[in-house]
C-alpha cells in the first residue's frame, strides 16, 4: 500500500527540454517494458479476455465453444442452489479474517517487546508461512482427527468430548476457519510487527506528556498508526478468502454435504471434473466482479479510518 | 557512454527477440486449433505430424499411471513389443499423480499421446467429446479373441453416440478389478464361526448374524476393539437386493425404490443400530483396510488389487462373494487402453493396444497379481489362479469378474449427480436420516442434474 502511495505522489512530469528527446528515450523505455507488458498480454490479458467470451458459450475444452448467450449466467444465478450455498460458505469462512487479524496484532505486540529470545519466538510464529500449504493441511487433518487428533486429546483433558470436526456438518467449516486463522497468522504478524516499529516514538512521547496511559496510547496512537497495514491485510485477506480453495480440496473435498464447498472449489469442479468451462468461466466472472465490489467498498470505507502520516 | 549504449541495445534486442518468439509460440496452437475445426485441414495437420517421423521408424506415444511395480512391468512389456515390432518406437510417459487432470489438459490442447490409459469413469466424458478412436475394425482383423474376453469388461468401453455400454468399441480393457469379500480366517476360527461360502453370496440376515459373532467389545466402553464387517460397497448390495441405481435408459435416478432403500438402510443399520461395523468416526482414526490388516476387522469388501499387499500379512485370509442378499453382484473397476482420435499413427497405435491388451501383455500383468486378466481362459488357468498362493478360493475373483457391472459413475459422462449423491449419503451412514427419506428428497435434484449434465442422452 505504502508503495503505491509513493508512486502516485510522484508523477513524472516531462519538462519541455525532455519532450524533445521524447522519441528516442521513450522508445528505449518502451522496449524495456515490452517484456513484462507482452508477457502480461499473452499470459493474462488475452486469456482473461477469452474467458469473457467462453462464459457466454457451452465449452467442454475439447470441442470448439458454441455460443449460448447468457445461459450460463442465468443457470448460475437462478437455477443452481449449490452456487449460492458455496457463496454463503465462502462468506462464512471469511469470519476468520477479523479473528485472524486481531490474533496477529496481539502476537505482533507481544513480539515487539524487548525480551530474551525474541528472535526465536518471531521465527516460531513465522514458520508456518514458509511451509507448504499441502503439508500443513495434511497435518491439520490429523489435528482434527476425531479419536486420535491432538485437538480432541486436549479437549479430553478438560473432560470435553470433541466433535468429529471435519466429518461433522456443523463443525467442518469452523474447523476450516481455525486452520485458516492459524495459517495466516505468521504473515500478518510480520506485517504488523513492521508497522508497529514504524509508528514514530515522538507521537508516543507527545501522548505521554498529555497524560495518556498505555491503553489510550494503543487506542489513539498505535491503531491509527498501523491503519495502512490493517487496510492492506484486510484487502488481501478478503481477496484470498474469496479465492480459498486448495486447503478445502485437500481437507474436506467440499464435504460433508457440501458444507465446506467454496466458490473457487466449485468452479474448479465445474471446469475440470465436469468439463463445463463456459459455466466455470461465468462463475469466475461473477466472483471477479464480487471481489472488485468488495474491494472498492473497502477502499471507500477506509477513508474514514485509515490515516497516512 | 558507448559501452552503456551497446549494453542497452543488446538487452533491448534480446527482449524484443524473446517477445517475438513468444508471439510466434502462441500463434501456433491458435492456428492449429483453427485447423482442427475444418475437416479438410485436419488431414493437413495429420500429414504434418506424420512427416515428423524420422526414417522408417514410427513413433507411438503411450501414457499411463501406476506404482513403480506397474511401471517396471510396462517397461518390460514395451521393450518386448519393440523387439517384435522393430519399426515402432514407443515413448512411454509414466504419470504417477493426477493422471486424469494432466490428460484432460493434453486432450484439450491437442497434444495427447497416441495410446492412453482410459479409466472407465472418464471414458464417457472422453468418448462423448470425440477424443477416442473406434477400434471395432482393428479388433476384427487382429488376433484378439473377443469372445474370450469378459463381457462386463468390454461393455463399459462401448459408446453408441448417446450412452456408454452399447455401440462401437473404443478401448480394450487393460485390466478388470472385481470387488469381493475378504475375511480374516483366524478371527473366524477364534470365534468358532464357519467361513463364508465361496459359492453363494451371504444374505443380509446371514451377514448380520456372522458380523455380530465377530464383533468384540471386551472392555465394554461401547467402542468395539474388533468389528465384524467393514463399510458397505453399497452399489452391489442394492443390485443384489433387486434394486436399481439408475433406470435402464439412464435418464432417471432409481434409488428411491424400496429394494434400493432397504439395502442402504441395512448397510447403515450395521453401524448405527447393530454396532457391528465401524462408524465414520472410527474409520477416520483407522480406515477399513488398516483395521483388516491389523486384525481389528473380520470381514470387509475390497478390490482384487489388494491381493499382493495382503499376501504379506501374517494371518490367513480368504475371499468370498459380496454379501448381496441374492445373486452374485457388485461392481468392478477397470482401466482401458484407448487410442487418441487425432493420432497420426493409428495402425501402430493399435498394434501396441493389441499387444498390451492381448494375451502376451495380459499374462505378464496378471502375474503381478493386481488385476484379473481380460481373457476368461487365462483367468481360469494357473497364470491367474496361482495355486499355492493366497487366497485359497481365487476362483471367486473369476466368477466376480464375469458378473460384476461397471460402477454407476461410468454410466453417465457427467458425474455431478454422483458427487451430489455421495455428499449427501453421509446423512444415512450417520443415522441422521432414513435411506427412504433421503432418497425421496434427493430424487428431484439428482434427476435434474442427470438431465442438465448429459443433454445428449435426452436428445
Automatic annotation (TrEMBL), chain A:
Source domain of life: Bacteria
InterPro entries noted in UniProt: ABC_transporter_permease, MetI-like, MetI-like_sf
Species per Swiss-Prot/TrEMBL record: Paenibacillus agaridevorans
Residue ranges crossing the lipid bilayer per the database entry: 26-50, 91-111, 123-144, 178-198, 218-242, 282-301
Main location: membrane
ABC transmembrane type-1 domain location: 82-298
Protein name: Sugar transporter
Keyword vocabulary terms for this entry: Cell membrane, Membrane, Sugar transport, Transmembrane, Transmembrane helix, Transport
Keyword Membrane found: yes
Pfam (any one): BPD_transp_1
Subcellular location: Cell membrane
TrEMBL record, chain B:
GO cellular component: ATP-binding cassette (ABC) transporter complex, substrate-binding subunit-containing
Region described as Disordered: spans on this chain: 27-50
GO terms classed as biological process: maltodextrin transmembrane transport; maltose transport
Signal sequence, start to end: 1-24
InterPro entries: SBP
Name of one Pfam family that matches: SBP_bac_1
Listed SUPFAM superfamilies: Periplasmic binding protein-like II (SSF53850)
Biased composition (Low complexity): 38-50
Gene Ontology MF term list: maltose binding
Keywords attached to this entry: Signal, Transport
Family indicated by similarity: Belongs to the bacterial solute-binding protein 1 family.
PANTHER family in UniProt: MALTOSE-BINDING PERIPLASMIC PROTEIN, MALTOSE_MALTODEXTRIN-BINDING PERIPLASMIC PROTEIN
This protein's name: ABC transporter substrate-binding protein
Source organism phylogeny: Bacteria, Bacillati, Bacillota, Bacilli, Bacillales
